[in-house]
Structure formats: structure tokens, C-alpha cells
Amino acid sequence: MAGRMKTDRDAQRLALQGGMKAVTRIEGVGKPKIGIEEFMSVAERFGIPKPALRKIKAALLEEGMGDGPFLANYYANLKETRVQAFERTAREIFGVKHAIGMSSGTAALHSAFVAAGAGPGAEVICPAIGFFATAAAVVTSGAIPIFCDVDESLAMDPKKIEPLITKRTVALAPTHVMGSVCDMRSIMKVARKHKLKVVEDCAQSCGGRFGGKYVGTFGDLGCFSISAYKIVGGGEGGLILTNNQRLWDRANGIAECGGLWRPDRFAPPRYDGELFCGTNYRMSEMEAAVDVVQLSKMEQTVNRFRQVKRRILERLKTYKEITPQKLNDPDGEVGYNLRFFPETIELGGKIVEALRAEGVGCGMRGKTARPDWHVYSYMFPVTGKRGPTEANCPFECPIYRERGGKVSYARGDCPVADDLFDRVITVSLNQWFSPRDCRNIADGINKVLSAYCAESPDGKAWM
């Protein structure tokens, strides 16, 4: 009896006091949270043929997956996560100090605008042509987009920026549209003169250069859409570039829930204004795994597009009634489209019909096309000036009104954009066109233009 009581007392004694441990081993053994089924789902989504899928699954069942992967950027037991590899690759390629992998190009824009100071009472000058996400991100930051007309490059006209600048202007948002590049030298000159931040929207021209320098590295922040809809990217992703530590901090403040990126994430602010509430725009590990490879292929992809376009342009004749798109840097644009402006929409309709009959893929909006969120006058979520609540911020923000702000939007505000967007003929190019393909396309364009236009050595050059 006494021995049993001693045993009971020993069992109750804390392990810290020399007693027995309550738990000496765990019997339950489970399967990894993320295992073979999840991997096969990804493999299937990649379009791998079923016979190959069966072989892959058999190999995995034989070898096993251990504890399985932890597919997150934080707390992964890896020397370098895929997101970190993506950001490192971006820094190395673009030659910048900081890069942030994002969940989308729109997330990148929102974070960048907030970092640049966009908020209640502020205005950001945006181009009249470019996807509406740029202006929308200004609105979601609490600021007001002011549209600037374009020139024949279809990009923001540097000569038309200054009249739009007010005491409320905090930033310019030049957008490199549809494979072309802006005149960044002139835009930066205006911005620095007026002490404005520059947020470059490079969503449609990843890999473009101006004067030998990558777009996205001229401004204070460069934003990219790295997605399946662009020439670089596999799903839905984005990227921010900057050389400014504080801007990097602020952009991360929005993207990483206010401060999750910090060395000590739960510590008090290290400097005034460091911490504020953000959201989660974090790039996923699965997305980064694809996009780090895609980004490493960027320069080769862009070079193929450039070579294709140059081969075609070099063979084109000049015509009295045809104005080619202005190329701010013929050697630097990405060049996945070839654009020109016929003298009239009526002439353009005939040219498009004839080009398609020749096998040249092309299009033009014309007078009766549907609304398109790539031109300011149809950006209804912006031009309707309605916020998500009855307060109707930012359009009726008291701070904006106190600073003298009052904005209106209507077709006709940017007449050059109105005209050119409807009249431009776009010929889509493919990076894999062979030299013969390029010759045939160029000959087809010459054939059609010669039938409807007057060939002229004084016509505007294609390059």
C-alpha cells in the first residue's frame, strides 16, 4: 500500500522537480496537410497529359512527400522562398534597391499611390488612355484622378501636364500603354520641377526601355502586372520597384497589413509615420514559383517581339493618308502591337476589312464600338463619381472641397485621346513570327495601303 502511494506521488510530481513526463511520445501519425492530391491538382492545371499524370502520381506514391510543403512567404523553413527569389530576381534584372512581389498589378498601384502620398484632398494626374485600374487605384487611395490628354504615341503628352497641376497634385502616373513607352525624360523634368512623385504604370510594357533604361526605374515607384494577360506572368501577380527605402516601407505598409514585413513586426514604430493599417496584397508562393521563371525570360521574350516588329516596319512604305504611331524609343518599346492612324475612320474601316482578307490580324474601334475601360471617357466607375457609401468619398470629400477641389469628367476633355483611340488600327504581333511571316505581313500591309492610299516619300516614317 505504501509503495503504491509513493508511486502515485511520483506520478504527480512535476517533471521540473524530477517527476515522470506526462507525454513521452505521440502515437498519432497523419498525412501532410498539403500532399500528393494538391500536387496532382497543380500538375493537372498545367495541362499535363493524363498518361504522364498517372506516372507522376505513381512516382509520388512510391517516394512520398514527407511533411509536405508550407506554401507561404513567412515562416517557411527555406533558405529563400519563391517570393523572395522573385523579388531578388527583379532587383537584379532592373537594377533597383527594392522590389515587392504583389498579388496583382492593381494591388501594386494602390500601394504605390498611398506610398506616394495620394489620399483625401489630393490629386494624381493620369493618362487619358490606359486601363482604368490606374485611375481606380487613385480613387481607392482616397485621391482624385485628373486625366491628361495623349499625343500620337498614345501615352501622356508631357506638354499637357503642367496646366493640370494644382496645389492638390501629389503625383503623376505615366502609363506605358500596350507595349510602347512614355517620353520619360520630359515627364520626369516636369515632375521634378514641381516636386511631384512619379508612379510609373508598366503593366502593359514590362521589359520596355527608354534611352536604354528600363521603364519602372525612372519614377519614384514602378508598378507592374505580372500576369497571364501580359507577356510576362502566369496567373495573377504584380510587382513594385523603388530605390527609396521610406517609399518601400510605406508600400509594404499597405501590402503587408501595416507592418508584417518589419524585422520585429509587433514592435512600436521605429520612426514617426512608419505604422498604419494596411491590407494583404501579398504574392503567393505558387504564383511566385511560376513568375520567377517568367521574369527571368523577360528580356528574351521582349527581344523577340522587338525583332519581329522591326522586321515588319523596315519593309513598310510611307503614305500620305497614314500616320504611324509615334515611337518614343523605337529600340526600347516592347512592340507586341503595330499601330497607325488612317486619315479618317471611314478609310480605316476599308483598310481593316482588306487587311483581314489578306490574313493580317487587326482591328479598329470606329464610331460605333462598345464602351472600353481603356479610355478615360468610358471609365464609368471613375467618371460616375460615386463612392461605395453615401458619404461618396473621395469625390465629395470635405478635405478635397476645403482645398478648392472640384472635378468633372466628360468626353471632350481629352480630344486627342477621343480621336486617336477610335481611329487607331492595331495589328497584333507574335514573338514567334518567322522572318517569312514578317515579310508576308509587311507585304500585306503595303498591298492594302497602296490600294487605298497614296504612296508618298514625304509621308510620316514608321520609325
Commentary on this structure:
The chain is of the alpha/beta class. It folds into three domains: 36 residues, no CATH class; 242 residues, Type I PLP-dependent aspartate aminotransferase-like (Major domain) (Aspartate Aminotransferase, domain 2), CATH 3.40.640.10; 96 residues, Aspartate Aminotransferase, domain 1 (Alpha-Beta Complex). It has a seven-stranded mixed β-sheet with strand order 1-9-8-5-4-2-3, sandwiched between helices. It has a four-stranded antiparallel β-sheet with strand order 10-11-13-12, with helices on both faces. The radius of gyration is 28 Å and the shape is globular.
Question: What labels would you give this structure?
Answer:
seven-stranded mixed β-sheet; four-stranded antiparallel β-sheet; Aspartate Aminotransferase, domain 1; 13 strands; 3 domains; 36% helix; single chain; alpha/beta; 463 residues; Aspartate Aminotransferase, domain 2
How would the global form be characterised?
A: globular
CATH-defined fold name of the largest domain: Aspartate Aminotransferase, domain 2
Number of strands: 13
Q: Would you identify the regions where 5 or more consecutive residues have pLDDT less than 50?
A: none
